[in-house]
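Example 380, ligand zinc ion.
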Amino acid sequence: MSVWDDLQGQAPVVTALRRAAEESAPTHAWLFTGPPGSGRSNAARAFAAALQCEQPAAADRGCGRCHACHTVLAGTHADVTRVATDKVTISIAEVRELISRAQDKPSTGRWRILIIEDADRMVERTTNVLLKAIEEPPPRTIWMLCAPSPADVIVTIRSRCRPVGLRIPPVDDVAELLARRDGVDPETARTVARMAQSHIGVARRLARDPEARARRDEIVTLPLRLSDVSGAVRAAGTLVDLAQADAEASTTARNAAEKADLLAALGLTEEDKVPPAVRSQLKHLADEQKRRATRSQRDALDRAMTDLSTFYRDVLVLQLGAHSDLVNGHLDATLRQFAEASSPETTLRRIDAIAEARERLSTNVAPLLALEAMTVSLLS
Ligand SMILES: [Zn+2]
């Protein structure tokens, strides 16, 4: 076991980061980019763990067993600070606080590490403040920024960071990981890896939770239940409810796992009485989890839209006779029937309608309104 285990299908990235962790003076600013689910924040965290790892031999860094590795991965290492946001933008105050932290010497670790998970969510004024800090780094400070793509970060910052580009792992790699690490049977592993379009976290949840799969199927087959305007309006409501249920289910499971990990890292079990010294760490975790809840609802809705559009994507593949695997291979017969009853032009228009609704959702429009407009336009 090592901190790199979860970076499936990212061999070149792992090689580069391992090598950097062995250096006595690694680059002080990094930019991790990759599509959602490719694991850019996991990669940053694994790298941070390797940099702080207590193994005496540089080649063993990132062991995944020492106290430093554990606490970095659990988010409790004193010298690794992480900023993620549930808001549309990261505030200038948050960035200023981070910069002042960057001035502190590391307390126990080798480095003071600052991770900004949503570096694309900063207005220009905030970015300029950050730029100054990255230009003149205090010794032993390492910045790690994460964003969907390099273009999401202004060029002046980008040019000062060493780039780390994660790719979407191939379906087979994701299936292999699920089978090896989570004990999922190979056929299910392949099915869910395809359904999740290689998003590792989503695939794992679909494999483990039959209810999550049932919810996904209900979302994907929604087009079959669109017959008139009132049905379309109902379908929009269903979509919101399903996304909400999904957000709650995934948050509950993840929160429990994180708490168990933290307790284990502190050498405690769920039954032990929590010593006062540890209480603040648990509280910190609870705060972070609460903060994340809002964001996970929005993410679930976005995920639902992605799932829904895979239905039309598959229909289009069949209509065009393209040689490409169906994302929803388990619905083969249904998809074929649907494909025959409409034209590629109609399908493309429907895919556009979903894209447009996603766009509107990202601007904080009331979700139900955006979805009703979408389901009604899917009728024609
Ligand atoms: Zn270690």
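Summary: Strands lie at 29-33, 80-83, 112-116, 141-147, 162-165.
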